[in-house]
UniProtKB/TrEMBL annotation:
<feature type="compositionally biased region" description="Polar residues">
    <location>
        <begin position="240"/>
        <end position="253"/>
    </location>
</feature>
<dbReference type="GO" id="GO:0005634">
    <property type="term" value="C:nucleus"/>
</dbReference>
<dbReference type="InterPro" id="IPR009003">
    <property type="entry name" value="Peptidase_S1_PA"/>
</dbReference>
<dbReference type="Pfam" id="PF13365">
    <property type="entry name" value="Trypsin_2"/>
</dbReference>
<dbReference type="InterPro" id="IPR043504">
    <property type="entry name" value="Peptidase_S1_PA_chymotrypsin"/>
</dbReference>
<dbReference type="GO" id="GO:0000785">
    <property type="term" value="C:chromatin"/>
</dbReference>
<feature type="region of interest" description="Disordered">
    <location>
        <begin position="218"/>
        <end position="253"/>
    </location>
</feature>
<feature type="compositionally biased region" description="Polar residues">
    <location>
        <begin position="218"/>
        <end position="227"/>
    </location>
</feature>
<dbReference type="GO" id="GO:0006260">
    <property type="term" value="P:DNA replication"/>
</dbReference>
<protein>
    <submittedName>
        <fullName>Family with sequence similarity 111.2</fullName>
    </submittedName>
</protein>
Length: 631
């Protein structure tokens, strides 16, 4: 990796300040796709999506031609939920591509909404939450959506927006697409099966996926609070108080439940036992190893001097999106996905990181693999991918546990000193000389790309690990992310951090330059301008991953694969210590589109067929088809 210059930023604080200070007349940019073309439009953040679309003359023509039809507006990010016509524009990501289709519906099923939310509330995304609901209900629900044609158009989810602090039932009434239900309904989380009643507030639902289910075990006293009734368009204001909804929830509980005998409560408490979660020793050791370094980096970045200031900082920052990575479920998901991450060796020397994209194909950066023959598209050097044999480690642990006849493997506790990383035996797999797909530089669309898709040789035996393509999703504009790789070509590590929103990159860079004038006066002249030229096509963040981590997968806070860690801007600070301004990744979407385009040209039908078999790559194939038509 070349020497770069890097920026530090407090993503969430700056993001919120920028959203609050941004003039209302600033242009918010997003796109819409109506086969076979993509159109760009600008709008005010206080507009609804339909208002913004109708400002575009091309869309207005399409809309007028289909005035008897219902417009389906689907988001780019998986699961590509369909939004309502009154969906706030402030919730649409910058440069997000909305997919537009028109479908025939019954006259009685029209759901075109006119927003009653005040303009001040509409212009700030921090006033809202969004979540996705399946268009197919659970057991016992024959019809859920008013527009039954949505399912025929393969619309699996609808995206619902809600105002923070309001009840779930009110949000669904405003949405207007759900059938009026007399049954007691609730939402079931598709990840952990948690149940959310209609009387609950919506604040904890952001970014989650649900299915509507019928509750069989609720008392009649809660019937009215679980029904979805016709909506009355009442003006909503930012002053709505979440605490009022909490008090109403308490009132929904029957009196008999409130006066439950004290003995029964005590007996329930005594049954709760704290137990150690099995199989979490490795996660605990990883977190302990990273704690000291992360704490020092935090103190340096935020100017914190003592433990009391650190505690105050975390009290202020705890509610931000990075808390997703503190959930055991998320950490376990990342641990499983990290099995697919490998080291890349060039001529026997460790050069970077890669990961199993699918089947026998490894994705990494183009600058990691080094020189290629431009005529034959073959690697100039021999390359191997080094995975960790997890099965070997597990087998060795089991053999050590079975060293006595009196105890079972679970009962025989292994001393901590025996559980060492060296038990992970590396498996070095050779890579074919011929590249499957490769791009380094700016493409025809003006986007910077730096990737190489390698194919393992036919005799290589892969360890059992997940294919990360199945976890692919569109890139969010902000929020928490996690990088998994081999920084310094050392042991595998993970680094949770924040996306720096594009509108904050300039101010964050200026702030870092102002605070470090003596250290970075050289690089600011040479590469700050160059950095800003390519920022439109990259995901920016502040990470501790430097050399050796190029090619690492980048996951969002829901463990979706969103990008490839590529580089950053680092410099030598006081005392020879490496400092940083900003790290970046290239998003997966243009990489996957380029892979499909090149494989079609080279006749790699096996690669194309794999993409066509994936549910989450339909939009990728659509963009690739469009580029082929242009070519």
């Amino acid at each position: 990796m070349e020497n770069f210059c890097k920026q530090e930023a407090d993503e969430t604080r700056l993001g919120k300040d920028a959203a609050l200070m941004k003039p209302e007349n600033d242009g918010h940019v997003f796109k819409f796709y109506y086969e076979p073309k993509t159109y760009v439009l600008t709008c005010k953040t206080s507009m609804t999506v339909l208002e913004a679309l109708l400002k575009n003359s091309s869309f207005k023509q399409f809309y007028d031609k289909n005035e008897q039809k219902y417009v389906v507006i689907r988001r780019e990010e998986t699961p590509r939920g369909a939004v309502t016509s009154d969906f706030p524009c402030c919730l649409i990501n910058e440069n997000e591509v909305l997919d537009i289709t028109f479908i025939k519906t019954d006259k009685n099923s029209s759901t075109t909404n006119q927003t009653t939310i005040t303009q001040s509330l509409m212009s700030n995304p921090h006033n809202f939450v969004t979540f996705n609901i399946k268009t197919k209900g659970g057991k016992g629900i024959k019809k859920l959506m008013k527009i039954k044609e949505l399912k025929r158009q393969e619309v699996e989810y609808v995206c619902v927006y809600a105002i923070k602090g309001e009840k779930l039932s009110k949000a669904l009434k405003r949405d207007g697409r759900f059938v009026i239900y007399n049954k007691r309904c609730a939402l079931s989380d598709q990840d952990n099966k948690d149940i959310t009643n209609m009387s609950n507030t919506v604040d904890h639902l952001h970014g989650k996926h649900f299915q509507v289910i019928v509750l069989d075990n609720q008392p009649p006293s809660q019937n009215s609070s679980q029904e979805i009734d016709p909506v009355k368009n009442e003006p909503c204001d930012v002053s709505e108080n979440p605490n009022s909804t909490q008090s109403e929830n308490v009132g929904a509980v029957s009196t008999q439940e409130q006066i439950r005998p004290l003995k029964e409560e005590r007996s329930n408490v005594t049954q709760i036992q704290v137990q150690k979660i099995p199989g979490t020793e490795e996660i605990l050791n990883l977190l302990r190893d990273q704690f000291k370094g992360l704490l020092e980096k935090l103190k340096e970045r935020e100017g914190l001097r003592n433990p009391a200031e650190v505690q105050r900082f975390y009290r202020q920052e705890y509610d931000k999106s990075a808390q997703s990575f503190t959930e055991i479920k998320r950490v376990k998901q990342l641990m499983k996905l990290s099995d697919s991450v490998c080291k890349i060796k060039v001529e026997g020397s460790e050069r970077g990181t890669g990961f199993l994209l699918f089947d026998r194909f490894i994705l990494t950066n183009a600058h990691v693999v080094g020189f290629i023959n431009p005529m034959t598209q073959k690697l100039a050097n021999s390359i191997t991918a080094v995975f960790e044999d997890l099965d070997t480690e597990e087998r060795m642990d089991t053999e050590e546990r079975m060293d006595t006849e009196e105890r079972t493997p679970v009962e025989k506790r292994i001393p901590e000193k025996k559980r060492i990383p060296e038990k992970r035996i590396p498996v070095e797999l050779p890579v074919n000389k011929t590249l499957v797909s490769y791009y380094y530089g700016k493409n025809d669309m003006g986007l910077h790309l730096d990737f190489a898709l390698l194919e393992l040789s036919s005799e290589a035996k892969l360890p059992d690990c997940p294919e990360l393509l199945s976890s692919y999703s569109a890139t969010p504009s902000r929020g928490g992310i996690c990088i998994v790789g081999h920084p310094g070509c050392g042991i595998k590590r993970m680094d949770p951090c924040f996306i720096i929103p594009k509108e904050d990159v300039h101010s964050s860079a200026d702030r870092h330059v102002a605070e470090n004038k003596d250290c970075i006066h050289v690089i600011t002249q040479q590469c700050l301008k160059e950095k800003l030229k390519v920022q439109a096509s990259q995901i920016s963040y502040d990470s501790c991953f430097f050399h050796g981590s190029s090619g690492s997968p980048v996951f969002d806070e829901f463990c979706h694969l969103i990008g490839v860690h590529t580089g950053g801007y680092v410099y030598e600070g006081a005392g020879g210590k490496m400092r940083s301004m900003m790290e970046y990744a290239f998003p997966m979407l243009p990489i996957l589109v380029c892979i499909i385009t090149q494989c079609r040209q080279s006749g790699r039908s096996d690669v194309i067929q794999h993409f066509e078999s994936q549910k989450n790559t339909k939009y990728v194939l659509c963009l690739a088809n469009k580029q082929n038509q242009v070519i």
